[in-house]
DNA sequence: TCGAGAACGTTAACCGGTAAATGATCTGAT
DNA sequence: ATCAGATCATTTACCGGTTAACGTTCTCGA
């Protein structure tokens, strides 16, 4: 397997495991924090809007929403004007998770980039941005 | 979300989608190619051995193996000495996939790193390696 | 020799993700 | 005013991954 792809996927896996562990300390599972983050940024959006903002399909959001609702972190409420729409609202408990989770993620970010110099870190971000761009531009 | 984690996970997603598309052109699904790659490197190993070499759990391998066997790319054969063991062997069809899939992956690697200079590419690999190491060393 | 414990692969239940099918509601042209 | 088509969220069925439970087979000490 090519060098970069191999290394990147290995890193992904480790990063995913680390993020999962961090988030589980607060009763969340990986992926759920992304949905919550979208709601911390802006409450009361529809599953479709949130899916688009998180780059995930709508069914993924509705399933996560169901679990987060069961856990008491958000609630579904119908849109008053358009009955097709559902709007997701944080509960106080869901809102209270913001700081701990953000701290957790920042700690992880700091830990994994700790052995990089400022320059290395900047170069890494630049390179990943370039790669991202190539992929977004399509084949 | 912190800068690097955000960027890395976005890249992962795009890379995953691109790799999936590439591999699907040959009738495979993402993940199956890793198992096959392990077999191209060395045939006749057990699910447990392969799982360890690919950094995946054993059940993941047995499920993949079932699907790949149904598709005719590998077969399960019992170990002649130890009846607890199963050994996975490539069929000619499975072996024939090696070159096309490897070409596909190399093409993707070349494409995504095309906009990087040699130096940038080397720095990227170095940085990712460092991050990998931090994660392997554990919390 | 034989039986308890270790070492296997598999199965089951779950999770996050996807695509495709479903069903309800809105919209706009006629 | 109506109805065909668009637009939603949800359900279903699948996939790769995980952990935990299960059943079979070896191994090795008493």
Quick overview:
Chains A, B: GO terms for molecular function: DNA binding; DNA-binding transcription factor activity. By secondary structure, chain A is mainly alpha-helical.
Overview of the structural elements:
Two copies of one chain form a homodimer. Chain A has one domain (3-136): Winged helix-like DNA-binding domain superfamily/Winged helix DNA-binding domain (Arc Repressor Mutant, subunit A). Chain A has seven helices and two strands. Chain A has helices spanning 3-24, 32-41, 47-54, 58-70, 92-96, 98-112, 118-136, and strands at 74-78, 86-90. In chain A, strands 1-2 form a two-stranded antiparallel ribbon. In chain A, β1 (74-78) and β2 (86-90) form a beta hairpin. In chain A, α2 (32-41) crosses α3 (47-54). The longest helix of chain A is centred in the first third of the chain and has 22 residues, at 3-24. Chain A is globular and about 50 Å long. At the A-B interface, α1, α6 and α7 of A face α1, α6 and α7 of B. Chain A binds a DNA duplex (30 and 30 nucleotides) through residues 29-32, 46-48, 56-64, 66-67, 82-86. Chains A, B: Pfam families: MarR. Chains A, B: Residues 1-133 form the HTH marR-type domain. Chains A, B: This is DNA-binding MarR family transcriptional regulator.
Element layout with pairings:
Two copies of one chain form a homodimer.
Chain A: H1 3-24, H2 32-41, H3 47-54, H4 58-70, E1 74-78, E2 86-90, H5 92-96, H6 98-112, H7 118-136
Antiparallel strand pairs in A: 1-2
Chain A binds a DNA duplex (30 and 30 nucleotides) through helix 4.
